Amino acid sequence: MTISFVGSAVYEFLPRVIAEARLKQPQVTISLTEMNTYQQHEALRARRIDLGIARAPLFQPGYESACLVREPFVLAVPGNHPLAVADTVGVADLDGVPFLMYSHSAYPPFNELLTGMFRSARVAPEYVQWLGSSLTILALVNAGMGLALVPRCATNVVFRDVVFRDIDLGEGVQSELHLVWRADNDNPACRMLIEAIRAAVRSDEK
Asked: Which of 33, 55, 64, 68 is the most buried (most CB within 10 A)?
């Protein structure tokens, strides 16, 4: 069984859930490969993978999905920035500040969600880089190049000069991970693994 995953899933979610799924289905051999969400959707269409752990479901006939994780975004701030020690942080505080954003080519769900949120709030950060991974974004925040919004799971990555701040982005603005697969995948191991992964997620929520 081949499972693809977005890179940010490795910070916390993927290792734990896959380990639990393997305990429940030890007879299933799992091969992991990293892809962004768009690549996963294309790989499913071409039958190169069995399951995807992506940032967005595939809303097309013949595909199924299940939301595995919903979590808030947090603001990553250079340690010497005033917002690192401010009493509270809001979206309006990001107007005009140097900002590192997910690129549309690599992370369409995050790019569209966050840029849309800023437009709705009439807030215009100064986009200085468009990037393809949370790790790269955090490395540049650490270098003082700008601020960024990243999924809360990314706080597991430690950089010396990055401070994470809670921020209210409004209703529905959150990070999601979805399990996606072809409805016509008749491999019994695929269905067993889907249920094992979903059971592992439910167990972790208790």
From this structure: 55
Asked whether residue 106 carries a pLDDT value surpassing 80, the answer given is yes
Could you tell me whether strands 63-71 and 51-54 are parallel, antiparallel, or unpaired per DSSP bridges? unpaired
Domain covering 2-69+176-203 in this structure, CATH number: 3.40.190.10
Domain with CATH 3.40.190.10 in the chain: 2-69+176-203, 72-174
- The CATH code that applies to domain 72-174 is 3.40.190.10
Radius of gyration of the chain (CA): 18
Reported pTM: 0.86
Strand, helix or coil for residue 137 = helix
